[in-house]
């Protein structure tokens, strides 16, 4: 039987979600806890990979077991997991339903603090030395909808078969001294959101004009885009599925 886990984590102490040698990952912690509780080796498949230091407010993973799960498994799992990983629910799905390949969209948020704030130092990019104007940043957002090849925002030397993505939503909002960027797409390339944010910040700071974003995208060259924004300001906030299919 296949089960889905809905969970969240603070990525500060992890080298991303996915298991990798000689580094602590969220996936490793999840599998270790599940295997201990269910007394069998459990392997999980996540909805996607997050980079080192990136957070997830809502993410899913699936695993298989022949056991009928205890209704109290969520509480037990939270007891075994470290404080920075929290499971919300565990539920059964169809045996061929896939946490990664059946996701219909993913949504990220990125936070920037426009004033020096010791309370968001580890949860938002502290960008208080130079003001940012979100009006041109939002103008640039509209340009993103015109393209699907985002090679310029992709991490170099990855195993991506394609750099095509369909962006459904991209917008900046300001709440007092905090900026929030929300972006939703059918898929994202590694480092893509952070590279977009870094380029948008160059636009908001007046280093680039909104229309310059077209040339950045059309160059299909990572060196054309801005520096990647710091990982600690990025959050995966939603992954969509059609569970009724």
TrEMBL record:
Instruction: Give every Pseudouridine synthase I TruA alpha/beta domain span.
Output: 8-102, 148-242
Q: InterPro entries attached here?
A: PsdUridine_synth_cat_dom_sf, PsdUridine_synth_TruA, PsdUridine_synth_TruA_a/b_dom, PsdUridine_synth_TruA_C, TruA/RsuA/RluB/E/F_N
Q: Could you tell me the EC number(s) of this protein?
A: 5.4.99.12
Q: In Gene Ontology terms, what is a biological process of this protein?
A: tRNA pseudouridine synthesis
EC main group: isomerase
**Gene Ontology molecular function, alphabetical:** RNA binding; tRNA pseudouridine(38-40) synthase activity
**So which domain of life are we looking at?**
Bacteria
Against Pfam families, the record matches this protein to: PseudoU_synth_1
Stretches assigned to coiled coil: none
**Which key words tag this protein in UniProt?**
Isomerase, tRNA processing
Spell out the reaction equation it catalyses. uridine(38/39/40) in tRNA = pseudouridine(38/39/40) in tRNA
> Which family is this protein grouped under?
Belongs to the tRNA pseudouridine synthase TruA family.
Q: How does it assemble?
A: Homodimer.
Entry protein name:
tRNA pseudouridine synthase A
What gene does this protein come from? truA
